[in-house]
Amino acid sequence: MERTIFKVHGSGNTFYLFESDQETEHDWVSLTKWLCKVENEGGADGLLLVLPSTVADAKMRVINADGSEASMCGNGLRCVARYVCEKLKKDEAIIETMKANLKVKREEPIYEGVPTYAVEISPVSFNLESLPMKYNNQSEINYQLIPEFSQDIKYTAVSVPNPHLIGIVGEQYITNDAHQTSLAQFLNVENDYCSDGINVSYALPLKNDTIFVRTFERGVGFTNACGTAMTASALVAKINNIVQNETITVLNPGGFVKCKVIEDNGEYQLTLIGNATVIASYEIDIEQNNYKFISRKDTDEQKEYKKCVKVVREESASFIL
Ligand SMILES: N[C@@H](CCC[C@H](N)C(=O)O)C(=O)O
Question: Cross-referenced PROSITE patterns, in alphabetical order (predicted)?
């Protein structure tokens, strides 16, 4: 059965995007595991499924590389936003996700020639039950030392709505990733604190409107970027006065995004803005257990994106060069 599938990325967080008119058309877990193998066209961090919705313009499902399903994906949502808006010839749309119907919108390019979308990240909760997470009968972990995890890093747990643990760190924890790796390998999967595992990010403050974030993702490992993690990190930085501006630049190993954090009566409105790049389209045979790429057609978009990243990296700290 020959079908078209797209390779896309947001900040180098790379996915295959596949549209189907039937949610149960295929064994998506087995397809995702095959697509994400490095030996198959370099692999990817997951599969974005675009499906019909009865309540929104389309529905997005996100399957991580290991076959687990995520409730949200910020970088992926920008790619789905572009796909749906271009298909429907609209500048704005609503996308149904596992836990919320989210607003998405075409934006002015973050850099010449780089298609850019803004997506709503919601709902936001610091209540540990929402992640779910358990720690010393606390209801929240808000910018506090957790001696079981580290003697000097302050952590915050937040769901947006997928679960994130954000550590605000010094440069030594970015140049050497050993601490983040071992903590994330323990916390990403089911453990005594988080029954579903948790994404683990280390965020380094750079300027009063700029942070750097690196994420070890549940179901994947280190990625170039994680959109929900960067938005959650921007929120943590803002409410703890680590940054002052409403719009925060978040640098990441794959490029950069902008995150807008607005507080309204104790509720947070979060927006993630960044590239939605199509790398290539493929014809693929998705016959069960006999997957095969038949042809590949590259776009020129990656060249423009690389120019953008080069400029950002020249302007930013040397450790991400
Ligand atoms: N990279 C994504 C998040 C993907 C899901 C995550 N691995 C999870 O299991 O929660 C993003 O851009 O937000």
Answer: DAP_EPIMERASE
